[in-house]
């Protein structure tokens, strides 16, 4: 058999296996890739889940990196002092004057050690960023993959600060720049100069740490535009909860406290929150979303895989490994462990109760073990994408943005949803 024929045969085999995984609603990942050592566990695990593991039969659109050359004059630099950047694919036709900004995710760094580690990766230095990335899901340029936003100006802003685009400070001894807020401003100012200021429609979106960024900057984004511009925001997998972990501790609160204190985030948090709560509490979306003026859509899995892994049942809170099998595979959770996760889901629903009341806001919380569903083609818009009732994610977001219908979709509790693309770890 010739080499090309052999490669073709292997391609068919891999495609069949891939389709089987999609049919079963399971995405399998190697845990060794998912979690590095304890110091970088929370950031590296998130970076893996946010790394764009979407699927598309057709060849994905590859988009080059644009560095923001005017950023250095504003002190808007990555952790290592290099220029920040973004990837842009211009809109066309009816979408030529519409703009979608997607903030990249990738965890955070909460200590000098973890930030020094991070500055030598693509999430801390443009030197290490890919020169081209694929645009899939909400960034796709194909109407059959992205029916409402395919022909918009679509931009992915790279994440290289480690504080959800909100830090302000530096550590000269470690040669670290905490300039997330300046990076955000430099990026949007550069895009405004390239035509975004004339937008008829605009959507600020983000995945995970970028989803938190879209919440933090939502009203600021609205204020960039004329009142005539239709502006909304979308947070995908950004609803990080201040929850008690399996040991009774507050792993996530302690981690966020490190991020906020190290990177000088407090000064950039909404005063409507910090006038009442401490800065760390105001880094949690549950304490922010009800006071955001701009229409906001929250897309989240009720059993967010990253939060289960790194916030609810991290190895540091589970020294005896009681949760080990459950963390790897939701189907191997005991009845008491499932009950613990059900309580987490209820807390999430309670956190969005006030937020969901205004007509302007949208909600899609599905009962899946997943993380980041807008950038993956298989979860955003495909034949077997996750759905609540008959409504898939892409159509729900589109209906909400274009005011075709109000979207307040909350799934029934696990294990009722058979449409999920659940993440299972080896």
Explain the overall architecture.
GO terms for molecular function: hydrolase activity. There is one protein chain. This protein is α/β, with parallel strands linked by helices and about 425 residues long. The longest helix is centred in the N-terminal third of the chain and has 22 residues, at about 5-25. Residues about 1-25 and about 30-40 have low confidence and may be disordered. The chain is about 30% helix and about 15% strand. Helix 3 runs antiparallel to helix 10.
Quick gist of this model?
The protein is of the alpha/beta class and 426 residues long.
Task: Give structural attributes.
31% helix, disordered N terminus, hydrolase, PAE/NOTUM, 10-stranded mixed beta sheet, two-stranded parallel sheet, cell wall, single chain, signal, alpha/beta, 426 residues, 15 helices, globular
């Amino acid at each position: 058999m010739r080499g090309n024929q052999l490669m073709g045969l292997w391609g068919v085999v891999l495609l069949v296996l891939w389709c089987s995984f999609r049919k079963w609603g399971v995405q399998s990942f190697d845990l060794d890739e998912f979690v590095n050592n304890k110091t970088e566990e929370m950031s590296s695990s998130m970076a893996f889940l946010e790394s764009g593991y979407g699927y598309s039969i057709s060849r994905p659109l590859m988009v080059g990196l644009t560095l923001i050359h005017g950023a250095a004059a504003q002190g808007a630099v990555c952790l290592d002092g290099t220029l920040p950047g973004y990837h842009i694919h211009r809109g066309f036709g009816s979408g030529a004057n519409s703009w979608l900004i997607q903030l990249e995710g990738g965890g955070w760094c909460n200590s000098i050690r973890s930030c020094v580690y991070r500055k030598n990766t693509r999430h801390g230095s443009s030197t290490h960023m890919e020169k081209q990335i694929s645009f899939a899901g909400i960034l796709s340029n194909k109407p059959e993959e992205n029916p409402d936003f395919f022909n918009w100006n679509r931009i992915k802003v790279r994440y290289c600060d480690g504080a959800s685009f909100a830090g302000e400070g530096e550590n000269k001894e470690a040669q670290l720049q905490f300039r997330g807020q300046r990076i955000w401003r430099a990026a949007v100012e550069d895009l405004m100069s390239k035509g975004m200021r004339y937008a008829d429609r605009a959507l600020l979106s983000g995945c995970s740490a970028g989803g938190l960024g879209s919440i933090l900057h939502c009203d600021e984004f609205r204020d960039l535009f004329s009142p005539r511009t239709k502006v909304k925001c979308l947070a995908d997998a950004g609803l990080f909860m201040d929850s008690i972990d399996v040991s009774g501790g507050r792993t996530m609160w302690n981690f966020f406290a490190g991020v906020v204190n190290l990177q000088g985030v407090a000064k950039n948090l909404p005063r409507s929150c910090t006038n009442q709560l401490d800065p760390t509490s105001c880094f949690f979306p549950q304490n922010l979303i009800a006071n955001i003026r701009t229409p906001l859509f929250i897309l989240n899995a009720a059993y967010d895989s990253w939060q289960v892994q790194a916030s609810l049942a991290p190895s540091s809170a589970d020294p005896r490994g009681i949760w080990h099998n459950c963390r790897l595979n939701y189907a191997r959770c005991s009845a008491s462990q499932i009950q613990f996760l059900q309580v987490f889901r209820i807390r999430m629903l309670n956190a969005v109760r006030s937020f969901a009341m205004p007509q302007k806001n949208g909600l899609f919380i599905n009962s899946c073990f997943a993380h980041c569903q807008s950038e993956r083609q298989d979860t955003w818009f495909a034949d077997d994408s996750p759905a609540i009732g008959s409504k898939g994610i892409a159509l729900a977001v589109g209906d909400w943005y274009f005011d075709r219908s109000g979207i307040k979709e909350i799934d029934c509790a696990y294990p009722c949803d058979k449409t999920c693309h659940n993440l299972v770890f080896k």
